[in-house]
Specification:
Layout: H1 2-16, H2 19-26, H3 30-55, H4 62-86, H5 91-98, H6 101-111, H7 118-141, H8 143-170, H9 175-196, H10 206-230, H11 236-242, H12 245-258, H13 264-289
Helix pairs in contact: 1-10, 2-10, 3-4, 3-9, 3-10, 4-8, 4-9, 5-8, 5-12, 5-13, 6-8, 6-11, 7-8, 7-13, 8-11
Length: 290
């Protein structure tokens, strides 16, 4: 079970590393990508939900339903803000900043009186220093890039809410019983937002639909769904920290495909942020194993 769990995390990280690249290649509007990503995933997983309902006696309590709705709303916010940020700043900065949700997960855990050790506090301070180093240069380069950085941070906070709720509900609910309602809620919230903002959901050329399908199959179904699978066996902080491979993989792919090279200070900030999150995770894993 342990080996299968960590293999699932490895596959999930590999899959989500391609998300930013496929999104930019699609050419679709950010909110449209967020909508189709969750809507198609919910439809694809619906047969699994039907099977699980026959083999599982779990019936979501009212509080669980409310939590799923909040989780879906948080996921919609996460996707809409982060995907928009990809069009405004570099892939390296965007994926690093959105990957700081383990820090916000830790802060939320502290608010509910979970123990936080000295190493985790140091790691948190390091990560926030890295965030400052990533975002400060944008004041002098481009307001557009700065807005992209801030949107990625909003995506990190909403992502932390999504994973914290997932950990609370997944210990009781099966995979599809949790993911289908959450993905469907996310799609509905995104659709409503897009209609208000007059987003173009269709038509798109065939190559755009090809990339959207690839986003659903890879980053969504293999990525987020496997992360939700892992939430049943590990704390949210451990699962979210495993995604630290995303900014590294995405940055390398962006350099190869789009020739994106971050500024030197941004690179320093990225390294410090990842080291800070690594310190947080190291202590959390020891706590979990102890």
């Amino acid at each position: 079970m342990v080996v299968r769990h960590y293999m699932a995390l490895a596959v999930a990280v590999f899959a989500i590393s391609w998300a930013s690249i496929l999104i930019l290649l699609s050419g679709a509007q950010p909110i449209a990508v967020a909508f189709w990503r969750t809507a198609i995933a919910a439809i694809v997983l619906l047969p699994l939900l039907m099977i699980e309902r026959r083999n599982n006696t779990y019936v979501p309590a009212r509080n669980d339903v409310i939590l799923m709705i909040i989780s879906g709303t948080a996921l919609a916010t996460h996707f809409m803000t982060w995907i928009e940020s990809l069009y405004l700043t570099t892939v390296a900065a965007s994926t690093t900043l959105v990957s700081t949700y383990p820090i916000f997960t830790l802060v939320m855990g502290r608010l509910i009186r979970e123990r936080v050790g000295r190493q985790a506090i140091v790691g948190t301070l390091m990560a926030f220093l890295g965030v400052v180093l990533i975002t400060v240069p944008e004041f002098y380069v481009s307001l557009r890039a700065l807005i992209g950085d801030l949107l990625a941070l909003v995506g990190a906070v909403s992502g932390a809410v999504y994973f914290m709720i997932g950990r609370a509900v997944r210990v009781k609910a099966s995979l599809a019983m949790y993911t289908v309602p959450v993905y469907a809620t996310s799609a509905l919230v995104t659709l409503a937002t897009g209609l208000i903002l007059r987003t173009r959901f269709w038509p798109y050329p065939p190559y755009t639909w090809f990339y959207i399908v690839m986003i659903v199959l890879g980053p969504m179904l293999l990525g987020h769904t496997l992360l939700n699978y892992s939430l049943r066996y590990s704390r949210a902080i451990t699962v979210t920290t495993s995604t630290l491979g995303e900014p590294i993989g995405a940055s390398l792919l962006a350099f190869i495909i789009f020739h994106q090279i971050p500024q030197p200070l941004t690179i320093v900030g990225i390294v410090i942020t990842l080291l800070g999150i690594y310190l947080v995770v190291g202590e959390e894993i020891r706590t979990e194993q102890g």
